[in-house]
Amino acid sequence: MEAIAGKVIIITGASSGIGASTALYLSSKKAIVVLAARREELLEKLAQACVGKTLVVPTDVTKYSDVKNLVNTTLSQFGKIDVLINNAGLMAISPLNLSKVDEWEKMIDINIKGPLYGIAEVLPIFERQKSGHFINISSVAGVKVFSPGGTVYSGKKFALRAISEGLRSEVDKNIRTTTICPGVIDSELKFGSSDPTSLQSIIDFYKQAIPPDSIARAIAYAIEQPADVDINEIILRPTQQEF
Known about the structure:
It is a single chain. The protein is an alpha/beta fold. Helices cover 44% and strands 16% of the residues. A 7-stranded parallel beta sheet has the order 3-2-1-4-5-6-7, sandwiched between helices. β2 (32-37), α2 (40-49) and β3 form a beta-alpha-beta unit. α4 packs parallel to α5 (151-170).
């Protein structure tokens, strides 16, 4: 707990699922959690459930100006940022031949550009502090292509893993980078597909899901390691999941 207590931790996609569970878990370990998502009313409710200091900053990660405001507001409020958890995500599963181009663009904006915007704003702060920790939420679909229907989703998750690894190799060695690759986790993510056939398939697939606090504990494990230990990647899935 001592390694987490007092740390200022930004969590994107904090309004539900992994983000909300992580906020609750880290706040129970006395972290200062900054809650970022589009749905302000859910963030306010979550903040009331958290222990200790919290900050709600309504944020659409697809808008660079919003991410810039998130980081500046956090810095002005607390004077530092210790961890950025890039968690906001969308999973819109459908076969490529349906050409769901709008959904592809949304996934790319949320799941690739969003983390890059966060990195762009937070990295200079970490460099000045000579410390900091990026945690990027990828997926087992970023390790093995989820098919049929998950080609684009897997593509962006592979991309996030590549960004994480490139970031790790570029930054000063006192800045840590962790990629978390969850398997089937119970969250709103499963409702992201507009194709009825794909949606039903995903809902059925998610019957084996484990709770999001499983990921919260993995995130806490990475954060609480000594400063000279960098947990680069964690792959975590239900024992029943074959994919």
